[in-house]
Specification:
The protein is α+β, with helices and mostly antiparallel strands. The protein contains 3 helices and 5 strands, in the order αααβββββ. It folds into 2 domains: about 55 residues, no CATH class; about 60 residues, no CATH class. Strands 1-2-3-4-5 form a 5-stranded antiparallel beta sheet. Strand 4 and strand 5 form a beta hairpin.
């Protein structure tokens, strides 16, 4: 997650620099920008590799800035929920229903809520 956040920040800085010289850059999609400006390719590739690594583990990346990752988990009676991890938490401490989000996350049984970010 740390690598992904650093790559995202690097890409944002590079896009800001490009946008200063090309006012139309802000209205272009990321793929078009990366194709047009070679200096964006490396941070974009780093981001893609980090995302692929996270998703390759069966996780869903929810928010790069907050470092949020959801992991599908089947509970008893075939109920599927998301285990929810936030960068900085020592382990998976929370879950939320599939149809809910971060704001509705709940501590896993036995977890002291003070450890949740």
């Amino acid at each position: 997650m740390r690598d992904l956040q650093h790559a995202a920040e690097s890409l944002r800085r590079s896009i800001t620099e490009v946008s200063q010289d090309d006012p139309d850059a802000g209205s272009s999609g990321l793929a078009a920008l990366v194709q047009r400006y070679p200096q964006l390719r490396d941070p974009a590739a780093q981001m893609a590799a980090a995302i692929e690594k996270i998703e390759g583990l069966g996780c869903f990346l929810k928010d790069i800035e907050l470092g949020l990752v959801d992991i599908p988990c089947e509970l008893a009676e075939n109920k599927v929920v998301f285990l929810c991890w936030q960068f900085g938490e020592p382990t998976i401490l929370a879950w939320h229903p599939i149809e809910a989000g971060f704001a509705q996350r709940q501590a896993l049984p036995g977890v002291n809520k003070q450890y949740l970010n």
